[in-house]
């Protein structure tokens, strides 16, 4: 069996509800974009546009978009009824397509897609298999899934959804309109509003702290908390340890991808981005708008300045200035890193005759 | 307590059932190997061989094997009754051992081990604690474990086993003879036949996609699916995000190890291998038979050609040609990488006097 | 909402019980430290010290500590009543603070913190929602949480705590006084005493082993076990595969952080440390007291000598001698690595004019 063969590839109705159809004007309004009619004078589909689809799969009642110029050839061949594009691509829109033109096509696309496929609202109620402590406070508008555990004195805010098999520990506070995926564990944490946590994330467990005693390692009590501020998103199977004596803090609007590790007492500012498999060691501070790319690692007790960007697989061993772009292990400015790569390549070619003897030994 | 002290180290009957004993001819047949009698003229064990064991622990009724020449000294000292070896090692087989000789000893070993210890069949039935939606279709021959959740309209195929605490989301389709471990979550996915997913894997959650809006990041709806084709295996705690507008696809026969990250819209071809802690970013394409070694990272929107091999910890920032071997960060051909290492070592030794002043600053 | 604003940041009573107050003599005794009175002649707080807090948040009844000289300026400004410091910092202790002086302030802090906030004891009993096989042996003093599954013939020792949603597989043996977090899966494993496993760890699943057959990959049966010796700690969402034919062994007292991968048949000695996101491939051996820093990767079938230290992001492709310090990918001695960095920087600066043309191509 080849699963999915012959079925639609975007917004499969098995998985997504659809709020459409919408006409071009409604979509232009949602997108904050300008609507351009078809160049061939043809009319928009009777009854409106019905859904969204990628350029190569879209039909005449679908909306599609181009954001990455790498995929511009797909625009030439699309059969979409309506495409969202930047002004630079208007000339390339096929004559049978209407267009939504905007300087921010990805944002416009996001809003159009959301209009067609709104996020499901929480269905108020507690699944009969859930285990809720008598002293917990679950808002009547929250949705609690199968086999969820809510501990003593925990609080779940209005409109929040806690999916199947998640454990909310004693005393944890969860704000309003949160979306907590399945199999999540949250302990020793205070969580703001509109926080999203994907399946399998671990929030608030013991940090990695021990002292060397006469008979081996002794665990140092981890007595801080995790604070997830408003609008934070945490990826699947990521791990955020609680603080040892200070708190571990993820600032408002920050987004962490899957399999990210955040050590105890780390503090992220507002709107930081941490891409998958990156790790931030204990007590390190990220100011606001810092980006940490995939598989990068930061040692403990350093400070990364506002809007700094840490490249993929970067190994950061010391403070990074605001606005700096660093990459490499150890971290260095982007320009220096790529200059080193070029210099080494040149030396290596020049010396390849004499160096070849060594080349298999490393 | 030292757990396991003094107990058997392979196929412990606490954990594994045994289908033996088998005689040499049956094992040779299963292995597709040639049976060589003991050089000392001794006879095979009365009643057949009873189990498998590593060279250093095997006794006279055990079957063992040598696949890695690094461990050849263990062959000299083994007390196994029967050993599986390549032709090159026949001369080194002790005289009290019979041998199964084959050009593919590891494959032969695999089949012999499977003969002794077959994979447990699914025990048809639904555990009384499972929560199955009335509209779900669970085949009568499937096995559903404790506290499993199966959502609306989900389908579980014949002979499939879903272990304890796993959540199968609304509309998910699971084929025949699948093995889904405990604590797995699968949403927005179509899964083929004979697919194996180890505990804690996360399949089908939202990809990492957001646009920058006037008030901060705005989540881009993730409206694709995950397609796992036939015979795919996914490791423990790995994460596979669903597509944003296209699908995320894992091609037939591909195998992913533990803690692997697959971004939205990525497409892997047939029989790819992705080793633990590697990450493949969104919209990247792997053609067939690609190998990605441990902790390697691939940026998004690139293409890796058929049979290319990406080395451990490699950082791939651009397309890789079919059949190429690359390593390093940024990725380069194996030969170039090790030549660079050698050149730098030579330069560093030569200049070590003058460079030492800087050596502590990095 | 900014969660936690205005609340205490250490030992929040929502999450931690407090066994205090204690007077200075009791704390000095627990800490194994010398008590120094306030330099200003002031008296200790009436009724004793009540809790612990970080230097910057502590008040007059709190105990705090300085371990990292980076934070010494916080000592100057602290309002703590009692501080734990090394002899070198006694002169810098503010005159209104008493002091506990010791050569090992972090260990002393650990013991004082534990005195105030002891680890909660197991509450004997099985949660009514747990699913315990009739043939399992659960000690009467063990605590079994909600929705826990304990398989056939599994054994749970005295005083052990198994948190909600954890699955203990058939035949697994768990020793005394263990702490197993929520959402853990343990199969094919023997576990010693006082072992701690944090949420979401995966212990004992199939290793990544397959042979190439005529019709694609064939799984090699994984017939070994996982042995976790006494006092081992395993981090959140880490994965430890069972052996294929030998066992996978984690030696007594070893500590693994979050998101660590341990391949099949790997053997760690006593008191090894493996920091987050590091990976150890199959059949590799770590002798005793080895440290593997964050995101390091070790290939399979190598041996790391006693007390060797593997740096962060290091890529280890061959054996490492006892006591060696290595870093880089491929691994090399620390001195060589930083000398290489310095040499390359120097060359790159010298040649930056001619090399700039290449710098954007990599």
From TrEMBL, chains A, B, C:
Keyword terms of this UniProt record: Acyltransferase, Lipid A biosynthesis, Lipid biosynthesis, Lipid metabolism, Repeat, Transferase
Metabolic or biological pathway: Bacterial outer membrane biogenesis; LPS lipid A biosynthesis
UDP-3-O-[3-hydroxymyristoyl] glucosamine N-acyltransferase non-repeat region domain ranges (all copies): 50-115
Active site, per annotation: 264
Family to which this protein belongs: Belongs to the transferase hexapeptide repeat family. LpxD subfamily.
An example Gene Ontology molecular-function term: N-acyltransferase activity
Record's protein name: UDP-3-O-acylglucosamine N-acyltransferase
EC number, UniProt record: 2.3.1.191
Source species taxonomy: Bacteria, Pseudomonadati, Pseudomonadota, Alphaproteobacteria, Acetobacterales
Gene: lpxD
Biological process annotations from GO: lipid A biosynthetic process
Function: Catalyzes the N-acylation of UDP-3-O-acylglucosamine using 3-hydroxyacyl-ACP as the acyl donor. Is involved in the biosynthesis of lipid A, a phosphorylated glycolipid that anchors the lipopolysaccharide to the outer membrane of the cell.
Subunit text: Homotrimer.
Primary enzyme class: transferase
The keyword Repeat belongs to this UniProt entry's keyword annotation: yes
């Amino acid at each position: 069996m080849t699963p999915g063969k012959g079925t639609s590839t975007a917004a499969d109705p098995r998985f997504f509800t659809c709020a459409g159809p919408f006409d071009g004007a409604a979509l232009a309004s949602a997108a904050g974009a300008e609507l351009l009619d078809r160049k061939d004078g043809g009319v928009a589909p009777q009854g409106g546009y019905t859904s969204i689809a990628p350029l190569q799969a879209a039909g005449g009642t679908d909306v599609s978009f181009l954001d990455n110029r790498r995929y511009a050839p797909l625009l030439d061949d699309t059969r979409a009824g309506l495409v969202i594009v930047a002004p630079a691509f208007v000339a390339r829109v096929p004559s049978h397509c209407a267009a939504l033109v905007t300087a921010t096509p990805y944002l416009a696309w996001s809003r159009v897609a959301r209009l067609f496929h709104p996020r499901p609202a929480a269905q108020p109620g507690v699944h009969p298999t859930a285990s809720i402590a008598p002293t917990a406070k679950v808002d009547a508008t929250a949705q609690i899934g199968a086999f969820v555990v809510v501990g003593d004195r925990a609080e779940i805010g209005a409109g929040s959804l806690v999916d199947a098999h998640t454990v909310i520990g004693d005393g944890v506070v969860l704000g309003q309109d949160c979306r907590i995926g399945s199999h999540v564990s949250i302990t020793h944490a205070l969580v703001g509003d509109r926080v999203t946590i994907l399946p399998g994330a671990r929030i608030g467990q013991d940090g990695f702290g021990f002292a060397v005693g006469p008979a081996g390692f002794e665990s140092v009590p981890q007595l801080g908390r995790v604070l997830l501020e408003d609008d934070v998103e945490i990826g699947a199977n990521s791990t955020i340890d609680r603080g040892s004596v200070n708190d571990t803090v993820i600032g408002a609007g920050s987004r962490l991808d899957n399999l990210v590790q955040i050590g105890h007492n780390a503090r992220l500012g507002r709107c930081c981005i941490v891409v998958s498999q990156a790790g931030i060691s204990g007590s390190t501070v990220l100011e606001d708008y810092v980006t940490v790319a995939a598989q990068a690692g930061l040692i403990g007790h350093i400070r990364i300045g506002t809007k700094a960007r840490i490249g993929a697989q970067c190994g950061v061993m010391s403070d990074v200035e605001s606005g700096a772009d660093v990459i490499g292990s150890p971290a260095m400015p982007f320009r220096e890193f790529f200059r080193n790569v070029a210099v080494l390549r040149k030396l290596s070619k020049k010396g390849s005759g004499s160096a070849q003897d060594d080349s298999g030994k490393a």
